Amino acid sequence: MEDVIKRIIDIEEKAQALMNHTLQEKEALIKEYEEKTVAMEKRIHEEAVTKIEQIRKKELSDSAAERKAVEAQCDLKMKTIEEKIRKHKEVWVTDLVNQVLNR
User: Fold this and answer.
1) Whole-prediction pTM value?
2) In 3-state terms, what secondary structure has residue 29?
3) For the chain, how far is it from start to end, CA to CA, in angstroms?
């Protein structure tokens, strides 16, 4: 009978050791996955920041190019207007003076 009790105790000790080992493995896996999750979140955040910066730079570049195109178009229109004024200034001044004097 004493032999049976010793065997039961021995089995219980082995079962307890196995349970402790399993719990340690579980805790190690949980810690490992938490670290992987944190690393993945950090990597995703860094990639997002990089992508946002790339998009921001592209948008700034595109808007600068668009602004330059609009400025060039405005400059061209101003030159056209100035040329028209230069060509017709004398006629317009004369017409204006004649209209004022004819009243």
Assistant:
1) 0.56
2) helix
3) 140
